[in-house]
Amino acid sequence: MNINYSDRKYLKNNAANAVRMSEFNKGDIIFKKGEMGATMYEIRSGSVGIYLDYKGPNQKLLTVKQAGEFFGEIALIEDRPRTATAVAMEEMTKLREISINGFPNYVKSRTDILKPIMDAMSDRFKMQRRAYFEVCETLKAYVEAVENDLEP
């Protein structure tokens, strides 16, 4: 049976897959931008690159997450597609996958992880806010340039 473990419905209904370990080799895609997610990941060893437009003409490495860090946590909060692609940066990158179903019990058993998860979410929101303001500044400059060209 071939199961897509990123399938939100499957993970919600299968407690046995609430928390599991996975291993990836360098270059393996953990998840792709646009996929629906129902898991977050804790890096046990290795590192993970978070990319926009992975292998596309505008590829951009947003960040590299190291052992002890989390990524993909927004999938547990919002029912929307992944906003970036996660790629293993080292051989034998080991990840703990925590499903939407297993998250409450995982947090109860590991209260020490709440602050790092909240920090990761805060960093992500700050990054999105900075990107938003950069776009606003670019649009403002564009509008000013257009207005200046239109004046006699």
Quick synopsis:
Helix content is 33%, strand content 28%.
Protein described:
33% of the residues lie in helices and 28% in strands. The protein is built from 3 helices and 8 strands. The strands form 2 sheets. The protein has a 4-stranded antiparallel beta sheet.
Structural key phrases:
about 150 residues; alpha+beta; four-stranded antiparallel sheet; 8 strands; about 30% strand
Number-wise, the strands total: 8
Q: How many DSSP helices? A: 3
The whole-angstrom Rg is 19 Å
Termini separation comes to 70 Å
The largest β sheet comes out as: 4 strands, antiparallel
User: Hey, roughly how much beta strand do the residues contain?
Assistant: 25-35%
Low-confidence region ranges:
1-8, 10-15
Q: Report the order of strands and helices.
A: HEEEEEEEEHH
Average pLDDT score: 84
Give the helix/strand class.
Answer: alpha+beta
Helix content: 25-40%
- Multimerization status: single chain
Q: Which outline best applies?
A: elongated
Q: Looking across the biggest beta sheet, what order are the strands in?
A: 1-8-3-6
Question: How are the elements arranged and paired?
Answer:
Blueprint: H1 8-13, E1 19-24, E2 29-31, E3 39-45, E4 47-52, E5 60-66, E6 70-71, E7 85-88, E8 93-99, H2 103-109, H3 114-150
Antiparallel strand pairs: 1-8, 2-7, 3-6, 3-8, 4-5, 4-7
